[in-house]
Amino acid sequence: ISISANYSRELDVMECEQLCRLFDKDGHRIDVTPLKYLTGDFGAAGATRAAAVLLSLYHQKTLPCLPAGALLPGTAHLPGKWVSGMDRDIRHALMTSTTFGGGTCSMVFTRYPQ
Questions:
Q1: How far apart are CA 16 and CA 30, in angstroms?
Q2: Lower Cβ count inside 10 Å, N or C end of the chain?
Q3: CA-to-CA distance for 2 and 65, rounded, in angstroms?
Q4: Within 10 A of 90 (CB to CB), how many other CB atoms are there?
Q5: With 0-12 CB in 10 A as exposed, 13-18 as middle and 19+ as buried, what is 87?
Q6: What is the dihedral of CA 50, 15, 18, 1, to 10 degrees?
Q7: Whole-number average pLDDT of the chain
Q8: What pLDDT digit, counting tens, does each position of 36-67 carry?
């Protein structure tokens, strides 16, 4: 899950809570990829995140990720908690809210066998 988090404590927590409500009750079994932590929140951040997700699906390698629970209050965003480049059978990827030209959307990417 490529999340929109950008070190805004209040928004990061709200996003994590919603993802945990949907996918994982304790927030420790799903991995999230907050690319804005690594790249910043610049004008083309949405397109860059989409490209990274598509490359991850194509090459079947995870993007830098951490447990969703790391975004909850009282946790530190330490580089040592990041994991990247794991081989996985990645079939779907969710990219939460991003803007493209002023509109906000979330996208699901699916990899179909070749």
A1: 10
A2: C
A3: 9
A4: 18
A5: exposed
A6: 30
A7: 77
A8: 776 766 667 778 888 888 998 998 888 888 87
pLDDT at 89: 84
Confidence band, pLDDT 50/70/90 cuts, at residue 110: very high
Question: Closest by alpha carbon to 2, among 50, 44, 40?
Answer: 50
Among 60, 56, 61, 53, residue whose Cα is nearest residue 94? 53
Biggest CA-to-CA distance, the chain? 44
Cα separation values, 14 from 18, 54, 79, Å: 6, 26, 22
77, pLDDT greater than 60: no
The dihedral of CA 103, 47, 12, 36: what is its sign?
negative
Residue at token pair 């991995």: 31
The position carrying tokens 């081989």 is 87
Question: Residue 44 corresponds to which tokens in the numbers above?
Answer: 């083309």
> Which region holds residue 69: left if phi is over 0, alpha if psi is between -120 and 50, else beta?
alpha
